[in-house]
């Protein structure tokens, strides 16, 4: 047995649940995130994907079940607490400052400084070197780091956010619908960097409603519907056709088709 196989999962949820007043947002959901693997969480709007992200990233705390980080049962008190444990989340809106340069966004919140007595000033050269190296390590080529990040394509912005999380030591990378608003080519670029992050040993959580984006990169698939798990599958246990059928509500669509066939003259 290898060291990776014998190590506990980076993240494990056991029958986790969350309610907001009388509304059950998540109920009895279990999954694992292992180093060097991609766990895909699939579901339509209202399935519970956002609630699960918020629990894993420390925005909200779960009401029931267990959250284990590297085998230890924990309750994450804040996003800072999650980040300190190596859990980085890239949200769909990316939390970038569009008018700031690429390099300035890359070091945002972790700026290197020069000290002159009691004064601290941003070390521009070191910050630019950090951004250049972090992007190069992931094979991302952005010739002009001075350009505003808002002028990049959606795919490029996602890749910068992924490279930033990897550079600053993330062990778990949570990606919230990274390909949702992208065309085919740009989505392919982002998925390529998801695979790179996985191959660097990170555990990746890919949130998506598109099984065609999830299946090529995923090692494990958790399907959610109305806050509950429809199923959890290893890649060897399910093919793309079945994954798509479950995502589309295959049984419901079949019943609807039969109903429509009966009423059409």
Core attributes:
265 residues; alpha/beta; Rossmann fold; 4-stranded antiparallel sheet; 10 helices; 12 strands; globular
Explain how this protein is built.
This protein has a single domain (3-263), classed as Rossmann fold, CATH 3.40.50. Helix content is 36%, strand content 26%. The protein has helices spanning 3-6, 49-56, 79-84, 102-106, 124-137, 154-167, 184-199, 211-217, 240-247, 250-263, and strands at 11-20, 23-33, 38-42, 64-69, 72-73, 87-90, 113-116, 119-122, 172-176, 203-208, 220-225, 228-234. It has a six-stranded mixed sheet, with helices on both faces. Strands 2-1-4-5 form a four-stranded antiparallel sheet, covered by helices on one side. A two-stranded antiparallel sheet has the order 7-8. A hairpin with a 2-residue loop joins strand 1 (11-20) and strand 2. It is globular and about 75 Å long.
Using only C-alpha atoms, the radius of gyration works out to 20 Å
Helix and strand run? HEEEHEEHEHEEHHEHEHEEHH
Could you give me the name of the CATH homologous superfamily?
A: P-loop containing nucleotide triphosphate hydrolases
- State the helix count: 10
What is the total domain count? 1
CATH architecture descriptor text:
3-Layer(aba) Sandwich
Report how far apart the termini are.
63 Å
What is the 3D form? globular
Mean pLDDT: 87
Low-confidence stretches: none
Strand order of the largest sheet: 6-9-10-3-11-12
Percent helix, as a range, is 25-40%
Beta-strand residue fraction: 25-35%
By CATH reckoning, the class would read: Alpha Beta
Number of strands: 12
Could you give a short account of the major beta sheet? 6 strands, mixed
């Amino acid at each position: 047995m290898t060291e990776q196989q014998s190590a506990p999962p980076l993240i494990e949820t056991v029958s986790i649940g969350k309610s907001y007043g009388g509304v059950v947002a998540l109920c009895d959901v279990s999954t694992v995130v292992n180093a060097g693997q991609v766990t895909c969480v699939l579901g339509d709007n209202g399935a519970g994907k956002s609630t699960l992200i918020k629990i894993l990233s420390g925005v909200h705390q779960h009401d029931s079940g267990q959250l284990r980080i590297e085998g230890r049962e924990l309750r994450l008190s804040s996003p800072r607490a999650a980040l300190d444990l190596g859990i980085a989340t890239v949200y769909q809106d990316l939390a970038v400052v569009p008018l700031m340069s690429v390099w300035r966004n890359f070091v945002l919140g972790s700026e290197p400084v020069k000290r002159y007595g009691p004064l601290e000033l941003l070390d521009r050269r070191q910050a630019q070197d950090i951004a250049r190296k972090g992007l190069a390590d992931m094979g991302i080529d952005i010739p002009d780091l001075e350009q505003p990040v808002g002028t990049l394509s959606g795919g490029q912005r996602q890749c910068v956010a992924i490279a930033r999380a990897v550079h600053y030591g993330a062990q778990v990378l949570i990606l919230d619908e990274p390909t949702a608003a992208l065309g085919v080519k740009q989505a392919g670029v982002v998925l390529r960097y998801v695979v790179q992050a996985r191959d660097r040993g990170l555990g990746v959580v890919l949130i998506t409603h598109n099984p065609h984006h999830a299946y090529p990169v995923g090692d494990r698939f958790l399907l959610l519907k109305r806050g509950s798990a429809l199923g959890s599958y290893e890649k060897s246990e399910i093919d793309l056709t079945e994954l798509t059928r479950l995502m589309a509500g295959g049984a419901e669509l079949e019943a609807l088709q039969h109903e429509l066939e009966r009423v059409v003259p």
